[in-house]
Each structure stands twice: as structure tokens, then as C-alpha cells.
Design brief:
With 297 residues, this protein is an alpha/beta fold. The protein contains 14 helices and eight strands. 51% of the residues lie in helices and 10% in strands. The strands form two sheets. The chain has a five-stranded parallel sheet with strand order 2-1-3-4-5, sandwiched between helices. The chain has a three-stranded mixed sheet with strand order 6-7-8. Helix 9 crosses helix 12 and helix 12 runs antiparallel to helix 13. The longest helix is centred in the middle third of the chain and has 28 residues. It starts with a strand and ends in an 8-residue tail after the last helix. The structure holds nicotinamide-adenine-dinucleotide. The site of nicotinamide-adenine-dinucleotide has 27 residues, from helix 4, helix 7 and helix 12. Nicotinamide-adenine-dinucleotide (NAD) binds next to helix 4, helix 7 and helix 12.
Length: 297
């Protein structure tokens, strides 16, 4: 198939690479010259204008930071809704506000174009390995159309409905458990408990969870963890803060009480506010443990 891809960042680039590997023909676009260079190095055909992505595309995938970016790419000047042919399927895989997903979905349908939202879980590791989970929302027919494309990038597609809200619930748990894991490793440091030994215990006990296994914040415990490369992302803390704020809005609108989610939001706001938004989400470890030059007290 001819597939357009917009947004070649930490997630988009490995996802587009998997589509290329599955023999799809790609036309990829990003506003960042560095992202375009990286895509070219990966053998992906890039274009210099958004409008060119629409040409001859059977489907277009967007993987953008936030709702404002998705709205711009879909509804802005030269945006997808105005330029694609009605036979093109639009798939947004970004994590954004439910209302923006609905807005761009309705605008697409009004222009006679099928669109689904399909936020992902699985992180950059899942994106590289092609094992992402797509949490899809949209008409059953459009989801069926998207399945063979999504299956080149992930192993789970579904369930349909409430895609963005389900993703927000997931990331609220990921953030709160990541902070709890950081607290445990910071405490271990204070009492002189070896990080690897703590990992060996927790990874085979009731504290075992995805963030521990993939993002252990102590360096050189888990292969490929951001902690091993001074917390370069991965998943930027600013994007986790965005997701936590989305979850707080959804919880508040629904009258749901999420005290741990609220606290996690405040801790990520503090971490990002101190200039760390570009660090990996697990970099919050450095804030949790503080400066400990004096050793255990
Ligand atoms: P990123 O910042 O690494 O990449 C986003 C890319 O979009 C950048 O290259 C940027 O230049 C590009 N972009 C921004 N505006 C654009 C525009 N108008 N037109 C074209 N390109 C544009 O972000 P990421 O980590 O790849 O995350 C993307 C989305 O996926 C976010 O919504 C995030 O919450 C979600 N997500 C990320 C992860 C992760 O582990 N990184 C996991 C699950 C979901």
C-alpha cells in the first residue's frame, strides 16, 4: 500500500520503519529537519510538504506530540482533511484530548473520509519491535480497514471505542507506578541496598510491573533503559505530563476521584517546570532521590 506518515519522532520513526519492512511504500513528513534526516538514514522516502503526503495515499498515519499538532495537521492550511482523496484512510496514533480526536474525526467524516484514532501503548521498545498495542476508536468498518496496516507495527489491535480515554487510564497507572518504583530505588540507595539486588527481588515479587522491567531508574540494571543514557528519551516527561493532565480533565468531567493521578501530575509538573521536559519520563528519579552527597542519614 501507499502509506503517508506524519511525525517521525521517537515513536513515528520506528513505526514507519516497520511499515517499510512490511513492504509498504512510504511518503513521510516532519517539520523537524533532524527528524527528516534520521528518516532518510533509515531508508524512508521523505517529502518536503504535508500536501505531498496526501498524494496517492491509501492511508495516512499521524504520530504527533499533542492535540494542537493533530488539529493543525488535519484542519490547518493545506491540512489532511482538505487535501486527501476520500479513498484515503486516516489513522491518528497520537495521544490527545478526547474532544480533539472527536473534532478531527467528525471533520473527516463530513468530508467523506474515514478516520480512526488509535493511540498506542508499548513505548519506543514496542515501536521498534513492532509489538505495540493500538487502542482504537472509530467505525467498525474503518477499524477493519486499518487492521492490516496496524498489524505491521503492533501485535494487539483493539478493543474499539474510548481509545483516548483508555490510553489516559493506562498512562496514569504507568506514571504512578513509575514514581513508586523511583521511590523504592531512591530509598534503596539511602540504605545501601544494591540496585541490582533490589531489581532481582522486585522483578520476581509483587512489585513486578512494566515500568520496572523496562524503565528501571537505577543505571545499568535493565538493558536499553533510559537510565543507562542519562535519561535521554524514550518518552519525554513533557508528554507524560500532557497525558496526566488529560487524565485529570477526564476524571474531573466524570466525577472520578484519582488522588494518586493528581499527585503524579503535580510531581511531573515540578520536574518539567525545572527544565526537564525533554528528559525521559524515568528521569523523574533524579528529582525523587534529590541530591544525596552526604550518604545515608
Ligand atoms: P516526539 O516528540 O519524539 O515526536 C513527535 C514528532 O512530531 C517530532 O519529530 C516533531 O517534529 C513532529 N511534529 C510536530 N508537529 C508537527 C507537524 N505540525 N507536522 C509534522 N510533524 C510534526 O514524540 P513521540 O515520543 O514520538 O510521541 C508521539 C505521540 O505518541 C505523543 O502523543 C505521545 O504521547 C505518544 N506516545 C509516546 C510514547 C513514547 O514512549 N515515546 C508511547 C506511547 C505514546
Amino acid at each position: 500500500m501507499n502509506i503517508g506518515f506524519v511525525g517521525l519522532g521517537n515513536m513515528g520513526l520506528p513505526m514507519a520503519s516497520n511499515l517499510l519492512r512490511a513492504s509498504h511504500r512510504i511518503a513521510a513528513y516532519d517539520v523537524s529537519p533532524a527528524a527528516i534526516d534520521a528518516a532518510k538514514k533509515a531508508g524512508i522516502r521523505t517529502v518536503s510538504r504535508l500536501e505531498e503526503v496526501a498524494e496517492e495515499a491509501d492511508a495516512i498515519i499521524t504520530m504527533l506530540p499533542a492535540g494542537a499538532d493533530v488539529r493543525k495537521v488535519y484542519l490547518g492550511d493545506g491540512g489532511l482533511v482538505a487535501t486527501v482523496s476520500p479513498r484515503t484512510l486516516l489513522i491518528d496514533t497520537s495521544t490527545i484530548e478526547v474532544e480533539v480526536a472527536r473534532e478531527v474525526g467528525q471533520a473527516s467524516v463530513a468530508a467523506g473520509i474515514e478516520m480512526i484514532d488509535a493511540p498506542v501503548s508499548g513505548g519506543t521498545g514496542g515501536a521498534k519491535a513492532g509489538t505495540l498495542t493500538f487502542i482504537v476508536g472509530g467505525s467498525a468498518a474503518a477499524v477493519e480497514r486499518a487492521k492490516p496496516i496496524l498489524q505491521a507495527m503492533g501485535k494487539n489491535v483493539g478493543p474499539t471505542g474510548h481509545g483516548q480515554a483508555a490510553k489516559q487510564c493506562n498512562n496514569m497507572v504507568a506514571a504512578t507506578s513509575l514514581i513508586a518504583v523511583c521511590e523504592a530505588f531512591a530509598m534503596a540507595e539511602r540504605i545501601g541496598l544494591d540496585s541490582r539486588k533490589l531489581f532481582d527481588v522486585m522483578s520476581t515479587s509483587s512489585a513486578k510491573c512494566a515500568v520496572l522491567l523496562e524503565l528501571c531508574p537505577a543505571p545499568n540494571v535493565v538493558p536499553d533503559a533510559p537510565a543507562n543514557r542519562r535519561f535521554s528519551p524514550g518518552f519525554r516527561a513533557a508528554l507524560m505530563l500532557k497525558d496526566l493532565r488529560l487524565a485529570q480533565r477526564t476524571a474531573s468531567a466524570a466525577g472520578a476521584s484519582t488522588p494518586l493521578g493528581a499527585l503524579a501530575t503535580e510531581l511531573y509538573a515540578l520536574y518539567c517546570g525545572a527544565g526537564n521536559g525533554g528528559m525521559d519520563e524515568s528521569g523523574i528519579f533524579t528529582m525523587i532521590r534529590g541530591e544525596q552527597k552526604e550518604g545515608p542519614r
